[in-house]
Amino acid sequence: MAYRCLLAWLSSGLSVSPPASTQALKRVRHPARALHHWEKEAEARETEGRRGRWSAHAQKAEWLSVETGRQRQEEQKGGARARSRQQQASFLAWLGQARCARPSPPSPFPPPPSFFCPRLLSAGGSAPARRASPFASVGAAAAATTASFSFSTTTATQNTSSSASPFPPPSSPASDSSCAAAATMPEKRPFERLPAEVRPINYGLCLKPDLIDFTFEGKLEAAVEVKHATNQIVMNCADIDIITASYAPEGDEEIHATGFNYQNEDEKVTLSFPSTLQKGMGTLKIDFVGELNDKMKGFYRSKYTTPSGDTRFAAVTQFEATDARRAFPCWDEPAIKATFDISLVVPKDRVALSNMNVTDRRPYPDDENLVEVKFARTPVMSTYLVAFVVGEYDFVETRSTDGVLVRVYTPVGKAEQGKFALEVAAKTLPFYKDYFNVPYPLPKIDLIAIADFAAGAMENWGLVTYRETALLIDPKNSCSSSRQWVALVVGHELAHQWFGNLVTMEWWTHLWLNEGFASWIEYLCVDHCFPEYDIWTQFVSADYTRAQELDALDNSHPIEVMVGHPSEVDEIFDAISYSKGASVIRMLHDYIGDEDFRKGMHLYLTKFQHKNAATEDLWASLEHASGKPIAAMMNTWTKQMGFPLVYVEAEQQEDDKVLKLVQKKFCASGPYSGEDYPLWMIPISICTSEDPDHAKMQVLMDKPELMLVLKDAKPEQWVKLNLGTVGFYRTQYSSNMLESLLPAIRDLTLPPVDRLGLQNDLFSLARAGIISTVEVLKVMEAFVNEPNYTVWSDLSCNLGILSTLLSHTDFYEEIQTFVRDIFSPIGEKLGWDPKPGEGHLDALLRGLVLGKLGKAGHKATLEEARRRFKDHVEGKHILSADLRSPVYVTVLKHGDSTTLDTMLKLHKQADMQEEKNRIERVLGAISQPELIQKVLTFALSEEVRPQDTVSVIGGVAGGSKQGRKAAWKFVRDNWEELYNRYQGGFLISRLIKLSVDGFAIDKMAAEVKAFFESHPAPSAERTIQQCCENILLNAAWLKRDAENVHQYFLQRKASPTAV
């Protein structure tokens, strides 16, 4: 799932989210009461037409909502208060100890992504000549079983099993006295995986969504194997009401279930049977009803506008991690695989899609306006990869060179916008087939743009779902960064068709393997398709450095985290699983070599195809192919939190250089001096000025200290560690070594990715208080001749972090002067208009530089931006897509109410979601308090799609000191609406981080924590602790370095040699 890409997009001013949290408001159902109503309304259905029938359904649903709402709220409040009490003590202890913390300001990424309303089931037609409706008997069955049926609902959970214990890292930095004391994560909730007595072989699933009343009916006929005799079947089930259930042993009579026990907190249901189900094969039948919710998870509704202006709804799915259970009762665990035979009963004028190709489409016997669409049987697969979509779409299609039918589905009238993604997909499938030496296993692959979608994309097997902005490209109105993002997300999701879908993680503990691998190989794929993107240099800025920023915190976590309760899954859809995972796989690939890496991948995929695997299985395959100690090395990177800082000093001995390397854990709070000494097995590569592009020495550092001799390294030659910035560690050079490297930055003899890595290491060392921030500012001035987009992008992010920090001082304008001085030369060189021979990276660089200069108040840039904006608005000269963001943000930053009104008018007129998002992300640049409030109100209006509200609020928080305060207040004042909108999922975590991460006052950490003690957000617990830690680190950084930085700026102003 493209979470990491979405984070980068959200942060950079472009806008993932994993599936909404299973910690949503729990719904208490009263099935017995519901059946009483179903029985009564069954009589009404005999005499009333279809519209009258659905009107009755709506009335019943309203009654149920009133009956259950109060109990549901009380249940949630009780659980939330209990969790809050557990968390409070640990944080207060942490907050008291954290006074020794040294700071780390906010990451540049970001800021740089209902009540139950059951449906009555239709009685169906009775004419014997007509095909029987799959839903015909449900109402009658419900009535017939009411008297003998028992129902119960409970929120209690069983005792914890061994799977719920936290994963112990080999060595813990918790005892470190120099780092801020880590906040203790709340105790993990008790959890047990589904019992093994019964397992599915095949799901026969028929669903009938109603796109008017937003409900659906379902029939499940599952071929199952009873492995151990039992009188109950335990399945996952959430927000679904079961009407009837029965089990028919192979060749024997049907046994009807006599009770359903809904375990809401664990999202399970237990079907009880009057007699023992013996070992063997049989058929489990379940009739059920559910709601097409508006929470962007499970089986949900997505609002769209037709070309004629009508508002309509599609029915779509998002099941990862644990939301298939909201669409049908199932064994919703990745290791419990089965095949699926899916049918959808839909309006005849709608497109119906699922994982496999359509095998039959025929009129529905009970309603001439409906059709039943049947799909081919899927391969063995996990429930979270099942998908179906019902809506109105156009498509473009082609066949890949290996014969796979590829289609891109777009909103009606926008098929042209699917052609770029189609081109990428058609190139990508053969690339992965050749790379893995394993063919794509399905006959087709559909890529579809969904209007309301929380994540960036989702890799459902054969039917990949995307945000519109992650799939659609308008040849005239899409910017270069959008094209690049679409290419990366398509590459990411199609990689999952092999790595994740064909071979699936055994449990969510191994999620990182799916996502880290896809986040690495998407770059390999894009580099193959678009070598002009220089995408691997961009990887270092977008993934590698962002992962290091998060992993340096005491509230980080190991790559591999033991996951128990489903509510814990959402917390690991983060930069550690995605970006650190991708970074260590990139390091591993470099260490092994491409040929042996590919051999190992082929062995892994063929050995475990259609099965499940753990991290250790991949290591074993790669170790077999390479003969290197892969497991031993990689366990040091995946099973313990953090990463090393390698200190290096050199001594010249005649024509040789003797290097001394020392590794210690890198902490955002300063030098590590814990009682324990975590070690990593680090692939070290070393180059010199003699040949900057090739390693002079490579060695695996597996001890705290290492002495190396570089032969024939003359005194005048510089030495650089971590060639290509591939190893996942930071480097601190002795002062002499660093001084010798600075000329290589100015004269560009150091390769771009190494210039970037050196600068980023220095900046992080300054944030941690290991070196002075002034030293880094001096190094930044050496980049005056820099031509590379990605190096400038990383510089821009770091200067943005420093600007946010210094917004808490009275010399904020001085950092803006510094920014103008640094960026002016490259801005003058680039100009406003493309020159002949320029390409993709030039367009990205121009937009970055002009936006930076405009926000910093560069006079000439501001004047030209205003002129071009006026012409754009008046239609005299439409801005190119690559210039819109920098122009918009510049005029807003220095604009007034008229500017804001004009921008909101452009937003309303925009037909393309990319343009709407582009405007939404920069609105927060406005500076006047009353206009900031107007933007925040706009964020929750109908004009903004639910998933995009977060980027609007985040833009306000990142726009100014005043905006940050206003955004945090707005979040607090509207918390209930925001939390209910996102049901505690990924977007809540992003919202919290964007809103508070930029504060730099000690008391704000206590204020943030206090708020969330009284307003729990379970799926964001770790994010909240990370934000509080960052606030304290920011405050310490400001106290430590602010005055020295101020003096440096004053000296520059007085010096005629300033840049």
Automatic annotation (TrEMBL):
<comment type="subunit">
    <text>Monomer.</text>
</comment>
<dbReference type="Pfam" id="PF17900">
    <property type="entry name" value="Peptidase_M1_N"/>
</dbReference>
<dbReference type="GO" id="GO:0070006">
    <property type="term" value="F:metalloaminopeptidase activity"/>
</dbReference>
<feature type="binding site">
    <location>
        <position position="496"/>
    </location>
    <ligand>
        <name>Zn(2+)</name>
    </ligand>
</feature>
<feature type="domain" description="Aminopeptidase N-like N-terminal">
    <location>
        <begin position="200"/>
        <end position="385"/>
    </location>
</feature>
<feature type="site" description="Transition state stabilizer">
    <location>
        <position position="578"/>
    </location>
</feature>
<dbReference type="GO" id="GO:0006508">
    <property type="term" value="P:proteolysis"/>
</dbReference>
<keyword id="KW-0482">Metalloprotease</keyword>
<dbReference type="InterPro" id="IPR045357">
    <property type="entry name" value="Aminopeptidase_N-like_N"/>
</dbReference>
<keyword id="KW-0645">Protease</keyword>
<dbReference type="InterPro" id="IPR042097">
    <property type="entry name" value="Aminopeptidase_N-like_N_sf"/>
</dbReference>
<protein>
    <recommendedName>
        <fullName>Puromycin-sensitive aminopeptidase</fullName>
        <ecNumber>3.4.11.14</ecNumber>
    </recommendedName>
</protein>
<dbReference type="InterPro" id="IPR001930">
    <property type="entry name" value="Peptidase_M1"/>
</dbReference>
<dbReference type="InterPro" id="IPR050344">
    <property type="entry name" value="Peptidase_M1_aminopeptidases"/>
</dbReference>
<dbReference type="Pfam" id="PF01433">
    <property type="entry name" value="Peptidase_M1"/>
</dbReference>
<dbReference type="InterPro" id="IPR014782">
    <property type="entry name" value="Peptidase_M1_dom"/>
</dbReference>
<feature type="region of interest" description="Disordered">
    <location>
        <begin position="65"/>
        <end position="87"/>
    </location>
</feature>
<keyword id="KW-0963">Cytoplasm</keyword>
<dbReference type="InterPro" id="IPR034016">
    <property type="entry name" value="M1_APN-typ"/>
</dbReference>
<keyword id="KW-0944">Nitration</keyword>
<keyword id="KW-0862">Zinc</keyword>
<feature type="compositionally biased region" description="Low complexity">
    <location>
        <begin position="156"/>
        <end position="165"/>
    </location>
</feature>
<dbReference type="GO" id="GO:0016285">
    <property type="term" value="F:alanyl aminopeptidase activity"/>
</dbReference>
<feature type="compositionally biased region" description="Basic and acidic residues">
    <location>
        <begin position="69"/>
        <end position="78"/>
    </location>
</feature>
<dbReference type="GO" id="GO:0008270">
    <property type="term" value="F:zinc ion binding"/>
</dbReference>
<feature type="region of interest" description="Disordered">
    <location>
        <begin position="156"/>
        <end position="184"/>
    </location>
</feature>
<feature type="domain" description="Peptidase M1 membrane alanine aminopeptidase">
    <location>
        <begin position="420"/>
        <end position="637"/>
    </location>
</feature>
<dbReference type="InterPro" id="IPR024571">
    <property type="entry name" value="ERAP1-like_C_dom"/>
</dbReference>
<dbReference type="Pfam" id="PF11838">
    <property type="entry name" value="ERAP1_C"/>
</dbReference>
<feature type="compositionally biased region" description="Low complexity">
    <location>
        <begin position="173"/>
        <end position="183"/>
    </location>
</feature>
<feature type="domain" description="ERAP1-like C-terminal">
    <location>
        <begin position="718"/>
        <end position="1031"/>
    </location>
</feature>
<keyword id="KW-0031">Aminopeptidase</keyword>
<dbReference type="InterPro" id="IPR027268">
    <property type="entry name" value="Peptidase_M4/M1_CTD_sf"/>
</dbReference>
<dbReference type="GO" id="GO:0005829">
    <property type="term" value="C:cytosol"/>
</dbReference>
<feature type="binding site">
    <location>
        <position position="492"/>
    </location>
    <ligand>
        <name>Zn(2+)</name>
    </ligand>
</feature>
<dbReference type="GO" id="GO:0043171">
    <property type="term" value="P:peptide catabolic process"/>
</dbReference>
<feature type="active site" description="Proton acceptor">
    <location>
        <position position="493"/>
    </location>
</feature>
<comment type="similarity">
    <text>Belongs to the peptidase M1 family.</text>
</comment>
<keyword id="KW-0539">Nucleus</keyword>
<dbReference type="GO" id="GO:0071456">
    <property type="term" value="P:cellular response to hypoxia"/>
</dbReference>
<dbReference type="GO" id="GO:0005576">
    <property type="term" value="C:extracellular region"/>
</dbReference>
<keyword id="KW-0378">Hydrolase</keyword>
